Amino acid sequence: MPAVTVTMRTRSIESRKRIARRITDILVEETGVDPEWVTVQFVETSEDRIARGGVLLSERMDKSRDGE
Q1: Total domain count for the chain?
Q2: What domain range is 17 assigned to?
């Protein structure tokens, strides 16, 4: 049973439906699995919940906007 987790910023329900359908289609095409067995889970996140190098992405974005 293929299970895919998509971590990204919040998207509309219509966007999530399209993404889930396309991921499902690819897995069905590549593996031959029944579409009902494909699970796509969306984990919504934002720049203040992810850090790289110990610095929140939101802080990195603020610095780049300020020209640092």
Answers
A1: 1
A2: 3-65
